[in-house]
Design goal:
By secondary structure, the chain is α+β, with helices and mostly antiparallel strands. Helix content is 24%, strand content 37%. The protein contains 4 helices and 12 strands. Helix 3 runs antiparallel to helix 4.
Length: 299
């Protein structure tokens, strides 16, 4: 019993020294600890975080008149396009190599989109029941935009009177800006940006170095790996060819030894459509080798 307790203490000492000095090494095989005897099989799980970004454009009802009345070009068709923004590779473990998953930036609304609501079906200042053609309605909306800009300049320069100042001036300018944006949307449309992050887990195999994490579609974003409509998002792992033990192995005359697994520092990359997105070097036990380490000598 005393001999068994001494062996347990020695094994725990070896494990502690290895963990402190080199996290690339872990005990391998049948291990006896204070909790009992168990089979140790070091295995590395990889986490892959992919962030995709979608840009949606909705054209305005007066888009084709933007050049004529405002002197600017506007998108004439709706558009939805996804792209892979960034990626990260880390270890699913409790070691110091674990990387916290990044979070997607909040969805943003860009350009002349001030809300997620639809475009106005009639002009906000419509006060007549006379039906207008689309071009005439667009011209009226353009005239209102220029009128709002003139009123804003008059308020800023003081030409609108001396009674508008302080919070009143601030509120008036904010309301003018809101109305101007609403009219501009009718010409220039809306453009919103949405970002999503998804995490995938990969358990590498010793005989396999390439994995399809998921697939990517410019129309649908990140899709499952079995959806053949998208391009492959590939995790490529290249183990180090010349793997040497980072610590001294037991000699041929050593009788008291303990088995340990040495992880392989492998280069991991994520590729989308042949383009490399991220590259990391991570220790992976599946590509490593097993070594015999000398037991600490008793004193």
């Amino acid at each position: 019993m005393k001999r068994m307790l001494m062996l347990v203490a020695l094994l725990l000492g070896v494990a502690t020294v290895m963990a402190q000095n080199n996290p690339y090494i872990a005990l391998h095989g049948v291990v006896t600890t204070a909790e009992g005897t168990h089979l140790a099989a070091p295995n590395t799980l990889l986490s892959v975080d992919i962030e995709a970004e979608c840009e949606r454009t909705v054209c305005g009802p007066y888009a084709r008149y933007a050049q004529k009345f405002l002197g600017v070009r506007a998108p004439l068709t709706d558009k939805c396009e996804w792209r892979v923004k960034r990626a990260a590779i880390g270890l699913v473990d409790e070691s110091c190599y674990v990387r916290e998953p990044f979070t997607a930036e909040a969805a943003t609304t860009m350009n002349y989109a001030v809300s997620e609501q639809g475009f106005a079906t009639i002009q906000p200042d419509k006060n007549s029941t006379v039906a207008l053609t689309l071009e005439d309605a667009a011209q009226q909306a353009a005239n209102t935009i220029f009128s709002l800009r003139r009123h804003r300049m008059e308020l800023i320069t003081g030409e609108a009177g001396e009674n508008v100042f302080g919070e009143g001036l601030k509120s008036a300018l904010a309301e003018i800006a809101r109305q101007e944006q609403a009219y501009l949307e009718l010409f220039l449309g809306k453009r919103t940006t949405e970002r999503v992050v998804r995490r995938y887990t990969v358990n590498p195999e010793a005989v396999k170095q390439q994995y399809v994490v998921c697939r990517f579609s410019a129309q649908d974003g990140l899709v499952p790996s079995n959806d053949l409509t998208g391009d492959m998002v590939v995790l490529q792992i290249n183990p180090q060819d010349n793997l040497s033990s980072p610590i001294a192995e037991a000699g041929v005359k050593e009788t008291a030894t303990v088995a340990a697994r040495v992880a392989n520092p492998s280069t991991c990359t994520i590729q989308v459509r042949g383009e490399e997105i991220v590259r990391e070097v991570l220790p992976i036990f599946q590509y490593g080798r097993t070594v015999q380490l000398p037991m600490p000598k008793q004193r």
